[in-house]
């Protein structure tokens, strides 16, 4: 079976600092993969190399068998890659619906062009509305982002990614900054994402993350230290040593 995501020998250093050391990882179609590791382990820089925000020094990243590294970010997105960010990247003075439409326009690789957007309006707006509905914000499209709660913004960001109908979704700490109630709601939402979307998630909230993930990769100083099923990784003494600091 062709993996949804296959990373081979991925390496990156910033001067003397190795942030990704020969990472090799295969993620099956439909899998829910959790990536954990201490602060600075290289989790976000790994995502940045998958998306093309950062160029690795060596290695390969394949999406359903197709090499991504020579493609620009927007072309990777067009191949079915979407991500959310640890730090939200929204337009607060615009509406939720417009934020999703703008994400869709980014997907299509078009410069922001008002008239062109207007011509495509109904199609784009329908897609955007569907995505908002999928995250429970269907009735909130006309509200300004600035007037929403943090939890609603996290949902909006998810809608922006889902609107692109990704095959592979990278979630960078989707629960960061949320209250316990909001965390429960967003994690319940994550379980409703259909299996034709493969999900790789970085998350520090272990309760939620462990419940969600089927396979777990532990990174430490840019290197894969432990990988396996939830039970295997939790039982592995290296996980405790590295991640829990025991
Ligand atoms: N552009 C850069 N230039 C130099 N060093 C960088 C750059 N980007 C990241 N780093 C360093 O790379 C290391 C890995 O950072 P990264 O953000 O990937 O860690 P992380 O595992 O996502 O951490 P956290 O859990 O805190 O988000 C850190 O030491 C960070 O300071």
Automatic annotation (TrEMBL):
Chain ranges of the ABC transporter domain: 5-246
**Which InterPro entries would you find in this protein's record?**
AAA+_ATPase, ABC_AA/LPS_Transport, ABC_transporter-like_ATP-bd, P-loop_NTPase
Q: Which UniProt keywords apply?
A: ATP-binding, Nucleotide-binding, Transport
Matches recorded under Pfam families: ABC_tran (PF00005)
An example of a GO molecular function for this protein is:
ATP hydrolysis activity
Question: Organism's domain of life?
Answer: Bacteria
Q: Name one GO cellular component term.
A: plasma membrane
Q: What is this protein called?
A: Amino acid/amide ABC transporter ATP-binding protein 1 (HAAT family)
Organism of origin: Aquabacter spiritensis
């Amino acid at each position: 079976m062709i993996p949804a995501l296959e990373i081979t020998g991925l390496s990156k250093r910033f001067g003397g600092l190795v942030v990704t050391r020969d990472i090799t990882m295969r993620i099956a179609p439909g899998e829910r993969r959790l990536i954990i590791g201490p602060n600075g382990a290289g989790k976000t820089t790994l995502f940045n190399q998958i998306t093309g925000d950062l160029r690795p020094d060596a290695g390969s990243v394949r999406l359903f068998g197709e090499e991504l590294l020579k493609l620009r970010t927007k072309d990777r997105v067009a191949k079915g890659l979407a991500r959310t960010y640890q730090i939200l990247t929204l337009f607060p003075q615009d509406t939720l619906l417009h934020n999703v439409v703008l994400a869709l326009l980014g997907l299509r690789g078009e410069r922001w062009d008002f008239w062109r957007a207007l011509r495509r309006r109904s199609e784009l707006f329908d897609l955007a509305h569907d995505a908002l509905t999928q995250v429970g914000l269907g009735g909130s499209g006309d509200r300004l982002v600035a007037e929403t709660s943090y939890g609603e913004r996290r949902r909006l960001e998810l809608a922006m990614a889902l609107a692109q109908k990704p095959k592979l979704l990278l979630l960078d700490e989707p629960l960061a900054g949320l209250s316990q109630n909001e965390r429960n709601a967003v994690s319940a939402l994550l379980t409703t994402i259909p299996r034709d979307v493969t999900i790789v998630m970085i998350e520090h909230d272990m309760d939620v993350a462990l419940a969600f993930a089927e396979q777990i990769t532990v990174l430490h100083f840019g290197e894969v230290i432990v990988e396996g099923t939830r039970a295997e990784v939790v039982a592995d003494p290296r996980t405790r040593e590295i991640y829990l600091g025991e």
